[in-house]
């Protein structure tokens, strides 16, 4: 689910949802994308004025149609992901295809997709959360191609994972999607840098949304994993959101092709 699901608390939360709320609180004009209508409805009540798009980003054609009315993007957060744990010897085609379609292919599609937008449409953006301005500009209006066409700088942030760098049992497919995202981030940064478009990722440890809890279904694995973190904790959504906001902002103006580890020190252990 693009906007995340339920954590251990009893309120709707997740990295994508909390990113939308943070950007909205800062005065940004935000478009939020999720496959779940109820999540978007409750988010709209929390953040009056945001725009929402309901679509499964694992469906290429449906995504193209759903984003047809989305205009020019200044900042993009690619947060869509599914975690479907399976031992390597039990990996199925369905899980493999679903994981790569949502976790990686959608990132490519959303980050580059383009269409012709007529006059009077402001800047906005899809996929978890994105920011637009009110300046109308006709032309190809979505993310990288739109930024290049308009001659404006921009920032794209991919929400990855520490499993791009470390090994956790039963996550062969999920880890592969995140490792591929690391390579994609670097190549995008290299190719788009000439247009003043920065591309980075945040790589958190387990965050206790419902997706994170799927990884921790085995209590013994959860205990051992937490003990290996030098800070003896998992990440909070706020920790990840703060890193996303930094990478979206001009305070990271010289940062591109990088990954911020929000891992409570796990990688050094």
TrEMBL record:
Keywords for the protein's UniProt record, in alphabetical order: NADP, Oxidoreductase
SUPFAM superfamilies reported in the protein's UniProt record: NAD(P)-binding Rossmann-fold domains
Highest rank taxon of the organism: Eukaryota
One BP annotation, GO: xylulose metabolic process
Gene3D superfamilies associated with the record: NAD(P)-binding Rossmann-like Domain (3.40.50.720)
GO molecular function, one term: L-xylulose reductase (NADPH) activity
InterPro entries named among the record's database cross-references: L-xylulose/Carbonyl_redctase, NAD(P)-bd_dom_sf, Sc_DH/Rdtase_CS, SDR_fam
Protein family membership: Belongs to the short-chain dehydrogenases/reductases (SDR) family.
Quaternary structure and interacting proteins, as annotated: Homotetramer.
Protein name (record): Carbonyl reductase 2
Species the sequence originates in: Suricata suricatta
């Amino acid at each position: 689910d693009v906007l995340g699901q339920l954590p251990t608390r009893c309120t709707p939360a997740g990295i994508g949802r909390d990113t939308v709320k943070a950007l909205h609180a800062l005065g940004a004009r935000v478009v939020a994308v999720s496959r779940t209508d109820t999540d978007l409805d409750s988010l709209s009540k929390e953040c009056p004025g945001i725009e929402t798009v309901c679509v499964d980003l694992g469906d290429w054609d449906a995504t193209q149609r759903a984003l047809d009315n989305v205009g020019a993007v200044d900042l993009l957060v690619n947060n869509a992901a599914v975690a479907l744990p399976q031992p390597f010897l039990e990996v199925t085609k369905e899980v493999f295809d679903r994981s790569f379609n949502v976790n990686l292919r959608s990132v490519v599609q959303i980050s580059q997709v383009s269409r012709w937008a007529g006059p009077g449409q402001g800047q906005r953006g899809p996929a978890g959360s994105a920011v637009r301005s009110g300046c109308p500009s006709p032309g190809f209006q979505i993310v990288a191609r739109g930024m290049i066409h308009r001659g404006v700088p921009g920032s794209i942030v991919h929400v990855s994972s520490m499993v791009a760098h470390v090994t956790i049992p039963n996550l062969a497919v999920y880890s592969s999607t995140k490792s591929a995202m690391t390579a994609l981030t670097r190549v995008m940064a290299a190719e788009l840098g000439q247009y003043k478009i920065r591309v980075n990722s945040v790589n958190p440890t387990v965050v206790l949304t419902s997706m994170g809890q799927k990884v921790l279904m085995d209590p013994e694995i959860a205990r051992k994993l937490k003990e290996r973190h030098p800070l003896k904790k998992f990440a909070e959504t706020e920790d990840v959101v703060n890193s996303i906001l930094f990478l979206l902002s001009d305070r990271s103006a010289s940062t591109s092709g990088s990954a911020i580890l929000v891992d409570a020190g796990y990688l050094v252990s």
